[in-house]
Amino acid sequence: MRDLSDIEHAGSARWFRRGPWENAAMAVIGFGILMMTQPFSLDLYTYSFATILSGTLGFVVVSHFPQ
Amino acid sequence: MTVTNPARSLAEAAARRGSARFAARAGLSDRAVAWLFILPTMLLLLAINIFPLIWAIRLSFTSLMANLPTPARFVGLDNYVDILTDEDIWANFRVTAHFVFWTIALQILIGLGLALLINQKFRGHSFWTTIILLPMMLSPAVVGNFWTLLFQPQIGPFNYVIGFFTGVAPSSFSMIGSVVLAPWTIVLVNTWMWTPYVMLICLAGLRSIPDYIYEAAEVDRASPLRQFWSITLPMVLPFLMLAVLFQAIQSFVMFDMVNLLTSGGPGSTTETVSITLKRAAFEKWQTGYASALAVILFVTIFGAANVYVRALNWVKQQ
């Protein structure tokens, strides 16, 4: 019979899977690089580094999540 | 049956006993002895890689000017705000992106094509491989200087070749001096220099494909084009992606060749971020500002490399 800690663990394991989070972090980094090199808006360029940095830090964190 | 060399086994056992005796005498565990051996390398890496990085991050929050004796003043995120609201730096990032994109695209196309050609068994293919690899062996400083000479409108042969094929007067245009042509000049020279490297990586990929796969495809009457799309390309793709990763990083921080070829000119049409960084650090002596730009470049490359390595793993799994 599953106890409460097993259910909690299963819940956290469902939410903190590496794959989708890594994909999300990669999308943020890719979008940040696009923002940095696009020729249309200075505002997008201004926030590009913050976007890349958050994506990169996020990637480093989520790559330690279980598979 | 396993054949062992008795003398070697005895020597290994003696060495093991010796190190165990040394460790026991010094009161060290096996793990501690292992750390003792790794420590010098780790200290060296910390000294030449990690320490300068941390120091640059620290300097990026200051207004330090290395040519002045005044102490560094903490300015918080001011350097970052200055860089990220400067339209000129934004333009430099666009120039860098143009350079990286076209360099990579051309290098991959030409490099893969050359690798496919060299992979064919023909007379003298080793000789041609060596000839193709020559540009890669030259120093970027040498390449920058001799291409500057080749691009001279009056005496450079490049304009004469273009003039011969197009009918345009050779001295009527300047590759390095033209606002339109100069960005393509640095793409051309970088492609000329580094395509052999991409070819070499692709060749390694092509040579790793077993012949029996092609034999099986021929039994199934697959056309050469079909074999290329279904066998060659998927199996070379991880190698290609590795080449793209190396070349993208190398092109993103390319400095020496561009500096010698155009120095970022005319105007700032070929001013890549590395050139801007060098000017800020060693011409304007804005050390703190240059450090902030270096940190931005580092984080961008680190983030892109993370994405790329993940994509590479995914391709290898497929």
Structural summary, described in words:
The complex is a heterodimer of chains A (67) and B (318). Chain A has one domain. In chain A, 78% of the residues lie in helices and 0% in strands. Chain A is built from 4 helices and no strands. The longest helix of chain A is centred in the middle third of the chain and has 20 residues, at 18-37. Chain A is elongated. In chain A, 25% of the residues are buried. Chain B is mainly α and 318 residues long. The mean pLDDT of chain B is 88. The chains are: A mainly alpha (67), B mainly alpha (318).
Q: Assess the beta-strand content of chain B as a share of residues.
A: under 5%
Alpha plus pi helix count of chain B: 13
Helix content of chain B: over 70%
User: What is the makeup of the main sheet of chain A?
Assistant: none
Q: Find the structural class of chain B using helix and strand composition.
A: mainly alpha
Gyration radius of chain B, to the nearest Å?
26 Å
Whole-number total of structural domains of chain A: 1
Identify the overall geometry of chain B. Answer: flat
Shape of chain A: elongated
Mean pLDDT of chain A: 84
Spatial separation of the terminal alpha carbons of chain A: 25 Å
Largest sheet of chain B: none
Overall radius of gyration of chain A: 17 Å
CATH architecture designation of the largest domain in chain B? Orthogonal Bundle
Give the H and E element order of chain B.
HHHHHHHHHHHHH
The CATH fourth-level homologous superfamily of the largest domain in chain B? MetI-like
